[in-house]
Amino acid sequence: MRKDIIINIHTSLGSRLKTARSNKGWSLDKTSQHTGVSKAMLGQIERGESSPTVVKLWNIANGFELPLSYFLTDLTQTQAETSANTSLNTALNKLQNSEDDIHIVTLFPYDALTKLEVFQITLDPQREHISAPHNAGVVEHIIAVDGTMEYFLAESFDGIELEWHTLIQGESVKFNADQQHGYRNMSEKPVTIHNIISYTQA
């Protein structure tokens, strides 16, 4: 990815975080308490020195009770203003966690009228992604676009008892996301799913 694009992504995320914190009137310490992300990491994100992983970004969004795409909106706008180069545009709106197991592209940012946002998620082969519980009222709809993937929902609050379920291409599932949940791809090629997130209590 081009250096100027990386800087642009970091700056956009930092600006969004700073605005969200200002709207709440939170210090970095209080933000850390609500999000579970260290004060040092939050400071680095705000200064544009680094961008968070998908997991940390979800933690930040949950802490502020904001949709995930709130932090990606500026990236979407920037994407529209750049050239038509597909690989460059995709890079602008993609985040991946530190294990490089999941890639997320915003298809439709959060809409206050429908209370929905839509993402395209690609799971690398033989990879697993575990997500902490989201806020109450968050519902996820998963559609297997290509290939076969598996998901699990925690059957107990502490997430000890897990059960994996299989989704083949064309199948879908809906579940309350205020519990630990996860996705995995046990095949030998990348698998793409669409994730529609509904904020029913927004």
Instruction: Specify the number of helices.
Output: 6
Biggest sheet features: 6 strands, antiparallel
- In sequence order, what are the helices and strands, one letter per element? HHHHHHEEEEEEEEEE
Radius of gyration: 17 Å
What oligomerization state is this entry in? single chain
Poorly predicted runs are 1-7, 75-99
> Which range does the strand content fall in?
25-35%
Residue-averaged pLDDT: 81
In whole angstroms, the N-to-C terminal distance is 35 Å
Class inferred from helices and paired strands = alpha+beta
Order of strands across the biggest sheet? 1-2-3-10-5-8
Strand count? 10
Q: Tell the overall outline.
A: globular
Estimate the helix proportion, in percent.
Answer: 25-40%
Task: Explain the overall architecture.
The protein has a 6-stranded antiparallel β-sheet. A 4-stranded antiparallel β-sheet has the order 4-9-6-7, with no helix packed on it. The longest helix is centred in the first third of the chain and has 22 residues, at 3-24. The protein is of the alpha+beta class and 202 residues long. Helices cover 32% and strands 33% of the residues. The chain contains 6 helices and 10 strands; from the N terminus they run H-H-H-H-H-H-E-E-E-E-E-E-E-E-E-E. It has helices at 3-24, 28-35, 39-46, 54-64, 73-81, 86-92; strands at residues 94-96, 102-111, 116-123, 127-131, 138-146, 149-154, 162-167, 172-176, 181-185, 191-199. Helix 1 crosses helix 3 (39-46) and helix 5 runs antiparallel to helix 6. It is globular.
